Amino acid sequence: MKALILVGGLGTRLRPLTINTPKAMMPVLNKPFMAHVVDHLMGHGVDEVIFTRGHLAGQMERYFGENYRSCKVTFIDEEKPLGTAGGIKNCERFLDSTFFALNGDVFSTIDLSAMLAQHRSNNAVATIALTPVENPSAFGLVETEKDNQIRRFIEKPRAEEITTDLINAGCYILEPEIFGYIEPGKNTSIERETFQFLLTDHRPFYAFVDRNSYWIDMGNCEKYFQFNMDMLNGRCQCPLTPPAGTSIGDGTFVDPSAVFAGNVMVGRGCSIGPGVRIEGPVIIGDRCAVGNNTVLRNSIVWENVEFSPDDVVTGSIIAGRSRLGGQNRISDSTLADGVYTPSDYSLSGSQIWPGTALSN
Ligand code: GDD
Ligand code: MG
């Protein structure tokens, strides 16, 4: 079965991390976000994934190639943004039977096999997975009938329109009939247009309600941080979820005087120096060097990052190839890729753009 994944967005709300790294390639437990999504799809019988080619797609193409594990991978150009429906319509020639369609910024452990079985038994044209959230206002609210037929779909509901906690999880099963409801070559929205047309035409359009699975829209830095920590702390299980405590990648050197507490994942080929203290939850990418007496707490570190002696980093994200100059105090901050700090430097609640060389 094929899955189409919409990866058209610029990841604006994840800046500065997404200036040089597409959202899909941001590391989660040291593996690209999108690889977790595709692994989950493959666990439910997906053997071909079609990506719309978005922002910095070259990095995705280099990672996934033409085949990812046993899954065929295709990238489709979208010269100008076509919206969520237009992006799907643009892939029509590749989709001639029932397919999954996913928003590219969502990860969930929804039971897609059960969803497909329900879709088939309903003879549905479209089935939407629904997940509960505290505040549906930033999502697509979905009202259903008792038999799970969709009654109303309200994208970004106003406060007075909120009648349920169930929202569109950004995961659909669609029949090729859907293409007849989308105008070609135009920017159109599946949420605001296509789904409304299905309702007007009284087509078999159902919800698959899943209140128990893990679900997250990795739309901003806070959610990105939370998703990593949920994975690390076992609140969301995936094949990579490490056992509780410390896990150290191959070829990583750890000085015997280094101390680890809580859940910590260290990548491959790292060096953890004497007197280092790592207080989880902390994820450290491959080939990082953590200098003597550095303290890392509640943070995410990407690949090839260097900490000089006596740095203290708390509640922060340090992206790839950054280098901290020693005796730094960094808290609640996001440093994009390739940021340099001088020695004896402090930052709190800051967002630093890629390639910035900070000075005292
Ligand atoms: N190919 C393509 N072209 N993809 C696009 C385009 C486009 O022009 N515009 C958006 N996308 C992709 C985004 O990259 C993202 O993966 C997905 O479509 C949804 O767009 P968002 O901009 O993230 O929408 P949202 O989060 O506000 O709302 C959507 O997702 C919610 C669940 O997270 C809606 O589908 C809501 O109904 C839903 O509840
Ligand atoms: Mg989104």
UniProtKB/TrEMBL annotation:
One of its GO terms (molecular function) is mannose-1-phosphate guanylyltransferase (GTP) activity. Residues 2-232 form the Nucleotidyl transferase domain. Residues 261-357 form the Mannose-1-phosphate guanyltransferase C-terminal domain. It holds the Pfam family GMPPB_C. Its EC number is 2.7.7.13. The lineage of its organism: Bacteria, Bacillati, Chloroflexota, Dehalococcoidia, Dehalococcoidales. This is Mannose-1-phosphate guanylyltransferase. CDD domains: NTP_transferase (cd04181). Belongs to the transferase hexapeptide repeat family. Keywords: Nucleotidyltransferase, Transferase.
